[in-house]
Structure formats: C-alpha cells, structure tokens
Amino acid sequence: MRTVRLLLATLGVIGLLALIVAGGTGVVLGIVEQAEAGDLYEVHFAEDGDSCSGSGVYFAEFDGAPLECGPVAGQPLTVHPAFPGFGPEQNTAVEDLAHDLGRDGPGLTGDDEQRIQDEVDRLAASLPEASRPRHGREVLFDSWWGADLAWSAGAVGLAAGTGFFLVIRRLPL
Questions:
Q1: Got the DSSP string for 108-166?
Q2: For 34-60, what is each residue's pLDDT tens digit?
Q3: Cα 95 from Cα 81, distance rounded (Å)
Q4: Who contacts 81 (Cβ-Cβ below 8 Å, separation ≥6)?
Q5: Which of 5, 63, 87, 129 is found 20 to 30 A from 40 (Cα to Cα)?
Q6: CA–CA distance, 76 with 5 (Å, rounded to integer)
Q7: The pLDDT of residue 23 is above 60
Q8: What are the angstrom distances between the C-alpha of 94 and each of 87, 117, 162, 164?
Q9: Cα–Cα distance between 94 and 5 in angstroms, integer?
Q10: How many Cα atoms sit within 13 Å of 13 on the Cβ side?
Q11: Which pLDDT tens digit goes with each residue over 139-155?
C-alpha cells in the first residue's frame, strides 16, 4: 500500500513538474510574441533630417506628411502609410488626419500626435481577429498568443507549482 502511494506521488510530482516547465515556456513564448506585436501600430514622428529605424510608420512633424526610412543614410522619404491589417481606406483616414492636423498651424503638436496615435489604436482594435498580424508565422495556440498565452501559462505554472509543493510536503520520507 505504501509503495502504491509512493508511486502515485512520484507520478504526480513528475506530472506537476512537466506542467511547471510547460507553464514557464508558455510565459516566455507569450512575452516574446507580445513584444514582437507590441509596436506594429506605433506611430513615429520625425523632423527634417532625423534618422529613423526603418520600421513602423513615420509622419513629418512640420506638416503631417507620411514618411518612410530610405536607403540613403536612413533618411525619411515621402510615401503612403501602411499599417498591418489595415485596408486602404483605413490607411488613408490616418494619412488624412495627419495632413489635416499638420496643416493647422506650426506643424503637429503633442496633442495632434496623440490624436493620430489614438486613431490608429482605435482602428487596430476594430480589426477582426483574422486580419491581425502574426508576423507570417503560426503561433503556439491560435486563440492564445501574446499576453493571453503568457497569463494563461503563468496560471498553469503557478497552480502546478503549488500542487508540487503540497505533494512534496505530504511524501513520506
């Protein structure tokens, strides 16, 4: 009888350790996926002659014109903005808002820049799940990715860790 209990406890500990490892792995994967997706909809603003990183959408601070990093020393070039998952009408709406706000006065103010970012965030939040970017690769679980995966996996790991310590305390040594 004691041998059976010890065997079951050992199997339980092995199972709980596997869940702890899976939970930790899920947390790391979720954080990495969320970090990759986190700045897709961040709007950047540049002055004439500024260098840029080559990623994201840029608007000129002096008039709200859309810019893109060019091959010559990372200098912004005029183009049309293209946010992942946005349709042409959504990209045009953001571009028109930036132009309208940049035309009124001495260029874009901090409030104007925030208003443009808020509009991009609003449009991004309204995208159907199928239109949201996943960087052209599969994720671990289609409905759980990024922060959802990290929180869920963390909860599994925490519950498994608690169970592990409760089982270890009750083992007859």
A1: --HHHHHHHHHHHHHHHHTS-GGGS--TTS--SSSS--THHHHHHHHHHHHHHHHHHHH
A2: 676 666 788 888 776 666 665 677 787
A3: 7
A4: 57, 59, 66, 91, 94, 95
A5: 63
A6: 69
A7: yes
A8: 11, 9, 49, 52
A9: 65
A10: 13
A11: 555 556 666 777 888 88
> What is the C-alpha separation between 112 and 14, in angstroms, rounded?
56
Which residue from 80, 71, 79 is spatially nearest to 52, judged by alpha carbons? 71
pLDDT tens digits for 80-119? 777 878 888 998 999 999 888 888 767 788 888 899 989 9
CA 67 to CA 44: how far, in whole Å? 9
Query: Which amino acid is it at 159?
Result: A
What span, in angstroms and rounded, lies between the C-alpha atoms of 16 and 12? 6
